[in-house]
Amino acid sequence: xxxxxxxxxxxxxxxxxxxxxxxxxxxxxxxxxxxxxxxxxxxxxxxxxxxxxxxxxxxxxxxxxxxxxxxxxxxxxxxxxxxxxxxxxxxxxxxxxxxxxxxxxxxxxxxxxxxxxxxxxxxxxxxxxxxxxxxxxxxxxxxxxxxxxxxxxxxxxxxx
Length: 160
Prior knowledge:
The protein is built from seven helices and five strands, in the order H-H-H-H-H-E-E-E-E-E-H-H. By secondary structure, the chain is α+β, with helices and mostly antiparallel strands. It has helices at residues 3-6, 11-18, 25-36, 42-53, 58-70, 140-149, 156-159, and strands at 75-77, 85-87, 95-99, 105-108, 134-137. The protein folds into two domains: 3-77, Arc Repressor Mutant, subunit A (Orthogonal Bundle), CATH 1.10.10.10; 92-159, Dna Ligase, domain 1, CATH 3.30.1490.190.
């Protein structure tokens, strides 16, 4: 597999080099796959990379994710009670909306751009540089499935 086939415009190759990381086909395959599948778990990422690249161990995926997250190329989020998820959207102080049932995760833009949208009352001397907010709820698919199981149809105006 040729690197250009995975990263035709070279954007991810440049990002890896700028972060001081070697450009490898598995890393490019992982970053490419994550571009279209944000908020993915390690298992989903591993399956996506294998589909694109071929054999790669789960440990190698963990190692690639750790290196790219440490270099600031990825963000790791850990919603309580759900496996860690990874995304390429970094550095913009956005937050997340998580379904309590299926774990579906969506981005929620921050209120004030690059500044934290919350001020910690009684910050105990910390210099706060980021606020992480997770909104919890039930996604439309899980709500519809719940209503169907109860024999009650969801209000169509709410879910359209």
